[in-house]
Amino acid sequence: MKGANLALGAAGLAAFLALGEAVPRLGLAKEAYFPPTSRIAGALADELADPAFWTALGDTLTGWALGLAIAVGAGIVAGVIISVVPHLREATASTIEFLRPIPSVALIPLAVLLYGTELRSVLLLVVYASFWQILIQVLYGVQDVDPVAEETARSYGLGTWARIRHVLWPTALPYVMTGVRLAAAVALILVITAELVIGAPGLGARIAVAQTSQAVPEMYALIVVTGVLGLLINVGARSVERRALAWHQSVRGEVAV
Fold this sequence. Notes:
Helices cover 82% and strands 0% of the residues. Helix 3 (51-84) packs parallel to helix 6 (119-143) and helix 8 packs parallel to helix 9 (203-212). The chain has eleven helices and no strands. The N and C termini lie close together (10 Å). The protein is an all-alpha fold. The chain has helices at residues 2-25, 37-48, 51-84, 88-99, 108-115, 119-143, 147-155, 160-198, 203-212, 216-244, 249-256.
């Protein structure tokens, strides 16, 4: 079954690439704005041979990794504290619901005013967008803790940190891993967006330069790179999730199937 799925996926990708080659060749789209797949592939090969491309890729991955790490750490700590401290969740609910829907791109002017085109501008946007993905999942995870298990832990004399470790955390971990997977994708989107709009160093800035200089095949090649990067990040996040939750029923059932 797995081999058949891989074959079907490869066939679908081949058909998509063939369609991308045929559309401009047949005159269905202007080649100046939608180059054939072969030209994009050639531009991609040129990019891979350019050291500046790898520097830009490193800048993008640095902003993504740092922003995601800060958001995950802050989201987990804040979520646990808000859930454990009595009445703190009720006191912060309206503030969270007010701040969470604010689009991160709306903070771009603030980021530019504070930090210009530095890495800190990118981190501000990435952390703000990714933080909520983690925090909300942690809050939902803690809310799902079995009251009987909680009371049993209390009756056995477990302290606050022991209950967090042995009762709260195992229940919340599946939610946390879902939040991390979502936050990883959101962080990449915000990194590329910040680089495109602000001009911070990275793949987004190279895409903007290619667009303004009418280097259309190079622009599409860089867009392909960001798509591949997103795919790899998603696959990596799912792999980490499976390893972290190898004991969980959902993952064991998935492996069994």
